[in-house]
């Protein structure tokens, strides 16, 4: 069967409402005057990975549950406008949504609406199987119900990546994703001992590369049993929001990884893309392109 998709993204389609706050945690007050305003736009983790992969020239397809609601219409319009194929499975509970509180330094606190998913939610196995059959790779977001699609993806023979985000290394919900993926991304923010968690993921699962992002400190890469530090890239403009930085990192890493680059080079691609994402206001969904990504990686390698 002919391969038609480079990266199949499962899950993580939704809508965020961005609220700029004076600081985090938000000081208690009867009211706050919000500038530059409150904006609702399509774009959660799976959307951002799909957009970033597409911007880097990867043939991308997104699969998730969506409601027949205004939020679902925003997600459909985003994919249609960017030219990214989307398979939307009906979700009677509605499209995923969240409120993101963003402080002046770009830090974010996300409040997710837990009423828009159920334990019984499933992506149709036949749909997952058919899309996986024409895909090189699947990036699986940890949103419900993607864990149930992992055995189908494994049977199809595609490689798998996932992002555990701010996993504490203990919550069992994340373990099926961590142990079934070939490439595992996570944040070091909630980890008491990032190296121990990374080695446990590799030892108990099948990951060939585990990457723990560390914000301005860059990232840590575990590959072939060796842990290395990957330096942070200098953002090309002032940092305004960290939202989507991890998704951009993952997409750029996969861009290099699918091209056969060694893991450290892949991680350098990730740091450049993540730094770029921090310069994009949370009200927009811009992604770094191939030429700018290549220039940023070259600058890191030469110390420029």
TrEMBL record:
Entry superkingdom: Bacteria
Which chain regions cross the lipid bilayer? none
Query: What does the UniProt keyword field contain?
Result: Kinase, Transferase
Q: Which Pfam families match?
A: PfkB (PF00294)
Tell me which Gene3D superfamilies the record gives.
3.40.1190.20
What are the Carbohydrate kinase PfkB domain coordinates in residue numbering? Answer: 34-286
Stated name of the protein: Carbohydrate kinase PfkB domain-containing protein
Its source organism is Streptomyces levis
């Amino acid at each position: 069967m002919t391969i038609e998709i480079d990266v199949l993204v499962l899950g993580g389609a939704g809508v965020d409402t961005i609220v700029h706050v004076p600081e985090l945690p938000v000081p208690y007050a009867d009211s706050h005057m919000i500038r530059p305003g409150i904006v609702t736009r399509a774009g959660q983790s799976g959307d951002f990975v799909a957009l970033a992969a597409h911007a880097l020239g990867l043939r991308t397809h997104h699969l998730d549950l969506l409601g027949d609601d205004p939020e679902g219409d925003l997600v459909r319009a985003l994919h249609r406008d960017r030219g990214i194929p989307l398979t939307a499975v009906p979700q009677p509970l509605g499209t995923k949504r969240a409120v993101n509180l963003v402080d002046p330094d770009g830090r974010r606190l996300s409040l997710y609406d837990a009423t828009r998913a159920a334990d019984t939610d499933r992506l149709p196995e036949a749909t997952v199987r058919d899309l996986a059959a024409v895909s090189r790779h699947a990036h699986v977001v940890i949103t419900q119900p993607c864990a149930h699609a992992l055995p189908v993806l494994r049977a199809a023979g595609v490689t798998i990546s996932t992002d555990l985000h701010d996993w504490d290394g203990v919550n069992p919900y994340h373990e099926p994703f961590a142990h079934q993926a070939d490439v595992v991304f996570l944040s070091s923010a909630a980890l008491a001992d990032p190296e121990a968690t990374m080695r446990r993921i590799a030892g108990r699962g099948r990951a060939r590369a585990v990457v723990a992002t560390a914000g301005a400190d860059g990232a840590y890469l575990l590959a072939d049993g060796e842990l290395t530090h990957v330096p942070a890239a200098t953002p090309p403009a002032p940092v305004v929001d960290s939202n989507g930085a991890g998704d951009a990192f993952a997409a750029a890493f996969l861009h290099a990884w699918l091209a056969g680059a060694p893991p450290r080079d892949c991680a350098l691609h990730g740091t450049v893309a993540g730094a770029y994402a921090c310069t994009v206001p949370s009200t927009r969904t811009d992604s770094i392109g191939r030429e700018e990504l290549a220039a940023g990686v070259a600058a890191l390698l030469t110390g420029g």
